[in-house]
Amino acid sequence: MDKKETVSGTKNKKEFIGEVVSNKMDKTVVVVVKRLVQHPEYKKVVKRVTKLMADDKDNKCNIGDKVKVIETRPLSKLKRWKVVEILEQAKEKV
Hints:
Elements: E1 15-22, E2 28-38, E3 45-55, E4 66-71, E5 81-88
Parallel strand pairs: 3-5
Antiparallel strand pairs: 1-2, 1-4, 2-3, 4-5
């Protein structure tokens, strides 16, 4: 086996794609992740929205950017996500 296949300490971390809705904090952005879920009793498809606070070390993200975030260790009381890459820049900077 190659060493790359047997690297210890790596886990499958959750990844989400979302949109930046706030970048007012230093090195932190708020990302909204939208998903569709089927209601357990009524079987109707319902929209669900989750807000995540993500680490943005270089303050590169702007409002409206589409970003990919990955789960990480707790960085503060509410920050448990890190911006991996900016997939799409916002059309207009706000």
